[in-house]
């Protein structure tokens, strides 16, 4: 489990095609500290497993399913990525419960800079819109954010200077893809209500 609080801005150092999968090598001195084979690291909000670890770099294999459902397939050598290690039991839950299981992708539609923050508008797939509510939580490229406005096919978030400086959202431009993970609580509630309604018929 993750919290959506990005620990560092890493970099893709190599990409190897494996046919129906890809192997990424990524640099991240913070997240590789103490890392070992089999550990999980969230890369732009996608939970990946450490295959190899050497120095401040690690490799991870990304299957076709993940490449199809996320924006990781668009990464290339030199791409910057948000990195986060799983939260430890007893740690503060600084963001919200994030699984690292991407629900879909959106695209940056618009950026509106202000003196002390920036409003970013992101497209929202139709099948995810029902899970997104004003003042609710959403994960964008692994970043736990609060929804400012929830439209039928978009949402907006307000980014503080720290988020702009220390994550990929400070660099994303209109048209760029982003990974989206909606609040898991909303999906559980929907499933429970559906089962309850079905049982009452």
Give the arrangement of secondary structure elements:
Layout: E1 8-17, E2 21-27, E3 40-43, E4 46-49, E5 52-54, E6 57-63, H1 64-69, E7 80-84, E8 104-113, E9 118-123, E10 137-140, E11 143-150, E12 154-159, H2 161-166, E13 177-182, H3 184-199
Antiparallel strand pairs: 1-2, 1-7, 2-6, 3-4, 3-7, 5-6, 8-9, 8-13, 9-12, 10-11, 10-13, 11-12
GO molecular function: riboflavin synthase activity
Catalytic activity: 2 6,7-dimethyl-8-(1-D-ribityl)lumazine + H(+) = 5-amino-6-(D-ribitylamino)uracil + riboflavin
Enzyme class: transferase
Describe the structure.
With 201 residues, the chain is mostly beta strands. It has three helices and 13 strands, in the order ββββββαββββββαβα. It has helices at 64-69, 161-166, 184-199; strands spanning 8-17, 21-27, 40-43, 46-49, 52-54, 57-63, 80-84, 104-113, 118-123, 137-140, 143-150, 154-159, 177-182. The strands form two sheets. A seven-stranded antiparallel sheet has the order 4-3-7-1-2-6-5. It is globular. The mean pLDDT is 92.
């Amino acid at each position: 489990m993750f919290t959506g609080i990005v620990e560092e801005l890493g970099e893709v150092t190599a990409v190897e095609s494996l046919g129906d999968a890809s192997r990424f090598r990524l640099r991240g001195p913070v997240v590789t500290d103490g890392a070992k084979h089999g550990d999980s690291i969230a890369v732009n909000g996608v939970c990946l497993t450490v295959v190899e670890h050497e120095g401040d770099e690690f490799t991870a294999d990304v299957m076709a399913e993940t490449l199809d459902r996320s924006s990781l397939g668009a990464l290339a050598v030199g791409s910057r990525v948000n990195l986060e290690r799983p939260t430890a039991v007893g740690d503060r839950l600084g963001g919200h419960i994030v699984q690292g299981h991407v629900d879909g992708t959106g695209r940056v539609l618009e950026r509106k800079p202000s003196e002390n923050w920036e409003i970013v508008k992101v497209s929202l797939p139709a099948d995810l819109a029902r899970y997104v509510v004003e003042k609710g939580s959403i994960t964008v490229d692994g970043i736990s954010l609060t929804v400012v406005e929830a439209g039928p096919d978009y949402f907006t978030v307000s980014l503080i200077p720290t988020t702009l400086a220390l994550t990929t959202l400070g660099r994303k431009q209109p048209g760029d893809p982003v990974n989206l993970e909606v609040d898991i609580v909303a999906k559980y509630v929907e499933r429970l209500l559906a089962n309850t309604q079905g049982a009452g018929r």
